[in-house]
Amino acid sequence: MEVAEQKASQGYASLNILSSPLTIDPSLPLPHIKNHIVELCKDMFKDWSKLDDSCFLVERISGGITNLLLKVSVKEENCVDVSIAIRLFELNTDSIIDRQRELQATKYISAAGFGAKWLGVFGNGMVHSFIIANTLTPSDMREPKQAAKIAKQLQRFHQVEIPGSKEPQLWNEIRKFFEQASVLEFDDIKKQKIYETISFAKVHDEIVELKEVTDRLNSPVVYAHNDLLSGNVMINNEQDKVYLIDYEYASYNYRGYDIGNHFAEYAGFDCDYTFYPNRNEQYHFFRHYLQPERPNEVAREDLETLYVEANAYALASHIFWALWALIQAKVSPIDFDYLGYFFLRYKEYKGQKDKYLLLARSYIAGCKINGNIHSDQTHLK
């Protein structure tokens, strides 16, 4: 065993975290994945090592673009059913996801009571206790009752303290993605021709301009989820509990970015931005985020400040995921139109840039936000 692996194993042992060197390809059909999952369970949980394979039931819960969440139900020898959750990371994601940072964060986030109890780690995934809750859809997130619950839980999440640097990571990540995305070469001739239509000099200029404006907003730095799409929100309505799961991209970051990125996810993977929340819908979210116990007492100037932050940083979200998609188009084995996703996100960025950078610059200059800048009834197009 390599020295690094030995240290990692020792570290997990000190936390009572089980570990296994096994890896499982999440792109395999579920029946094939099941065999590997059973092998993994027997390797990690010694009490299950002699159980017959028929004692294991593997079900798909949900799947993002870069990971797959499975439920494993196990009938133990005493006839008691036990369930765990296993999350499989896509292979070849080291260039876009810092797995060590994720593992470090998971330890503290789990201890703070968010998500599930962390049970173990393996070659390309994690094992957690099973949460009895439903994964949301984009339309679920848009419902006012659910939006309020998510806002309250996100406010709590932003209070988490993680040891280490508190430097916001947004622009470091965008810089890293840009460096990788701008020098790709595709074996597929059609993909290469599409890729060559992208002006990376222009994308670079857009990044510089956007950073210059958003830096002047002085958005508070918080511990941010950074990927709060519908598949990463689970709700148990009977117990009135909200779980924010999957911390692949979690880091210290700007408050406005985490919220603006969440709003962009109202559009879903289809990128239907007619579902992006209007001002009234955003204010509803902000009230429950800023004052969870007294949402109707939030000052209007605080709503306006967060409105400017969230929508300016939503532009950064489009840039971030657009560049991410180009890298994925090169390395991912998953059948998804990543190149097309780049153009959808970048098109939305360009379509909303003038509106929200004007709003940000006006706010910075001390201009009053009024109906000439945005309308209560306006949805993004």
From TrEMBL:
GO biological process: phosphatidylethanolamine biosynthetic process
InterPro entries named among the record's database cross-references: Kinase-like_dom_sf
A single Gene Ontology CC term: cytoplasm
Database matches in Gene3D superfamilies: 3.90.1200.10, Phosphorylase Kinase, domain 1
Pfam family for this entry, one: Choline_kinase
Pathway this chain belongs to: Phospholipid metabolism; phosphatidylethanolamine biosynthesis; phosphatidylethanolamine from ethanolamine: step 1/3
First-level EC class: transferase
Residue intervals passing through the bilayer: none
GO molecular function: ethanolamine kinase activity
The family this protein is said to belong to: Belongs to the choline/ethanolamine kinase family.
Protein name: ethanolamine kinase
Native organism: Arachis hypogaea
